Amino acid sequence: MLRAEASHRWAGFELDIALEVPEGRCLALAGPSGAGKTSVLRIIAGLLAPSSGRVSCGQAVWLDTARGVSCPPEQRRCGYVFQDYALFEHLAVWRNVAFPVRKRRRSERRAGALELLDRFGIGGLADARPSALSGGERQRVALARTLALRPRALLLDEPLSALDRRTRSSAARELGALLRDAGVPTVLVTHDFAEAALLGDRVGVIDGGRVVQRGTASELAGAPASAFVADFAGAVVLTGIAHAAADGTTRIEIDGGGSITAIDSGRGPVAATVFPWEIAIQPLDAPSRSSAQNRIEAEVVSITALGQRVRVALAAPQALVAEVTERGARELGLHPGMRVAATWKATATRVVRR
Question: Which pLDDT score, from 0 to 100, does residue 61 have?
């Protein structure tokens, strides 16, 4: 079990975190730039000394400011995969992997490196230079190098950010499998909630130096604790004033005009959230054929293809985003400037605190 508690203050920013990661599990810390994600990794690794805190892995105590304990990074056996992988471009792939154990005999180092490279499916690249590798291959080399030291914990800083969009999804699946095989506690940081959901057994959303909610990705997406978490998880967030309706539902008067209905209870200033795939689009003059209670007039701003789906940005009293099928967008004849109605059900609407 990896445990870390730390508080640190500098230049108007305050970090205050506590986390636990069991052996063989991955905690994904997700949040925007400047939220404190990388600082958490640096504290665990021993690259940043917090004002106060305690870090332990199993029976080993790496940091305890109350007792004056602070192990240097090289004694923590903590594997750190940097955002850009930090490979040595002048060394062959196998030498990169063997670098952490460079004090061993050459034959022993090469044999160990080849074993790891074979495990990651890139044994044939052992004598290549990093410049000849694809983004996904570089990622695997970086992870193999980290595991060469047999670390007690793994730390990954934005592990997919250096990859292009085309290779990111396949590399994410490969990385998830490798992390499960590693069998050590892993902390991964990312600014992408979808990436956190794919790689983390649990997800912690971090903002302003604090973990504001943690749980499985589905728990966070389905029951966000705040408008910030809902927005970060990819939901559309609409602010307004809520009051009880006569039929037991909640009516929310949207800031800027219009109103929507939810079955969640709420009073006063609230945020209403709905996921883009719950929002249907229909021509403005089309008769309603669904049971959707929420209907907002909007104008199409942009249309972005996402594989077999299409993301439609809409201008309304507050910005909306809908996701429809490629066929649906084609049949509707969607184009920028087109006036449409965005509709969704009251049951798809969540009410959270602002």
Answer: 96
Residues 255 and 177 in one domain: no
Which structural domain, as residue segments, surrounds residue 297? 235-276+290-352
Does some domain include residue 230? no
| pLDDT score at 242 | 94
Query: Which CATH number characterizes residue 80's domain?
Result: 3.40.50.300
> Residue 340 has what pLDDT?
95
* Domain count of the fold of the chain: 2
CATH of residue 253: 2.40.50.100
Inside any domain, residue 179: yes
Question: Cα dist. 162→80, 86, 105, 172, 199 in Å?
Answer: 16, 11, 33, 12, 16
Q: What would the 3-class secondary structure string for the chain be?
A: CEEEEEEEEECCEEEEEEEEECCCCEEEEECCCCCCHHHHHHHHHCCCCCCEEEEEECCEEEEECCCCEECCHHHCCEEEECCCCCCCCCCCHHHHHHHHHCCCCHHHHHHHHHHHHHHCCCHHHCCCCHHHCCHHHHHHHHHHHHHCCCCCEEEEECCCCCCCHHHHHHHHHHHHHHHHHHCCCEEEEECCHHHHHHHCCEEEEEECCEEEEEECHHHHHHCCCCHHHHHHCCCEEEEEEEEECCCCCEEEEECCCCEEEECCCCCEEEEEEECHHHCEEEECCCCCCCCCCEEEEEEEEEEEEECCEEEEEEECCCCEEEEEEHHHHHHHCCCCCCEEEEEECHHHCEEECC
**193 and 51 both lie in a single domain:** yes
Please give the model's pTM, rounded to 2 decimal places: 0.77
Positions of the chain with pLDDT under 70: 162, 164-170, 288-289
Q: Residues near 291 by Cβ (< 8 Å), separated by ≥ 6?
A: 345
Residues 159, 243 within the same domain: no
Do 168 and 266 lie in one domain? The reply is no
Is residue 281 one of the residues assigned to a domain? no
